[in-house]
Amino acid sequence: MASTHLSKKRILIIGKTGVGKSSIIRYMGGVDNNEKKPTISNKQRGETFENTLYKNEEFIFADTIGFGETNLGGRPSNIMIKNLIVFLVNNNEGFNLVIYVIDNDRIDTYVKNTYQVIDSILGPNIPKILVRTGDTAAVGELIPQDGLDEWKRENCTFMNGCRVSYANIDQMIQENKPEIHIKVAQENIEESNRKLQELISLHSNTDAQRLYDPKTLPDRLKQTVTLVYKLWKLDETTLRSTLCLALVVLKNTEKNIFVDSSTLYML
Predict the structure, then answer these.
(1) Which stretches make up the G domain (predicted)?
(2) What is the CATH number of domain 5-211?
(3) What is the pLDDT of residues 67-101, one digit of tens each?
């Protein structure tokens, strides 16, 4: 029997543009509200904090754009701040698990910085796992503990991790790849799904953890935006003006949030 909406585990998927987030969701059967699967493409990097929800029989995936690009050096835009607020408001019911997606075995500065930002939004109590994409030689294998320990020394704690491979089957067919190659790619996808489902079941919180209390959202927003600006190394004047903008947008976005003038003066 299919799970009800309320019982589905909510999973936030984080990673740089092009690492394979959409491929994971697509091949795990995720569709949006229009029953469309995510498109597999080489999208441009984004700093907009956009997110789209996809669901299958068991999970609700939040696919993100911009959450993995927090050290590119560009100035955060008004659109980014607005979308960050929308993300907080629309996802207040929280998440059961966070998946960080990488495409190589190096300690990635993108992930390190994003980890800090996400922790400021979600808090430290939502489990996180690490997924290495594109590893056709070791599909389904766990990331060794010494690899996870190396990340932990960089203040990124993962409960577990695995290696997966999600080739673009449609593209392989269009390019007339040999049937044996397509068959191997499909087998890799099936094994990747099996291992990911296993880790999700093993490490997800039973209940999604809410992101904030409405009374504390302005403070949570201030904390997160301040951290983003610290990572971007921007000046305090710019930070203050952006925080004021953020709170004005917040008042217009979430009617249940009360932001008085004293909150602005405290920035």
Answers:
(1) 10-118
(2) 3.40.50.300
(3) 655 444 444 566 666 777 778 777 888 999 999 99
